[in-house]
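For the sake of transparency, this paper describes our internal protein records without simplification. Such a record has a labelled line for the sequence and another for the backbone structure tokens. Nothing more is needed to write down the fold, since each code stands for a local backbone conformation. For reference, a complete record is included directly beneath this paragraph.
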Amino acid sequence: MKTDAAKSAHLLLLADESPASKRMADYMAVIIGRHRNFHLHLLYLMPRLPAQLLETGGADTPEQEEKVNTELHRQQQEWINSRKAAAQPTLNELVHTMQKGGVSRQAIEIEFSEPNDAAFLDHAIPRLAAERDCHTIVIGHESHSWFREMTGGHLAEHLLRHTRATAIWVVQ
């Protein structure tokens, strides 16, 4: 016998602080609303780590190198934690919007991706969707401006061109 979780439709919602993500939450509230058997994975895509946090200049001895690498890792984690903390109010607002539309809070899972290099997103997002058993990815068209700055294109358009075997809902 299948469990209720197994019968649920899982959707991966890609979020950021943009008005497009707010429109996506509004849309999901209308579409999913009071329907049951949906599980929403609200995923905040972390942008790429700043260049100064990607590597060190090295050190003269293995002991110094270990200290330098430990400090770099600490700085990376501090940056990641600060980005997550900064995103939390927006994510809470998106959840609240969907709840007002009738989506159960238990049906929404907030997640954060690892900091991504834009070149790997065409693989990372579909892989995340597959790991979470999501056959639909939902994104606001004008969201994730950091991706546009790195690649010159919109993440939604990139996903439409490069993602296979998954439905993509692009919310204007």
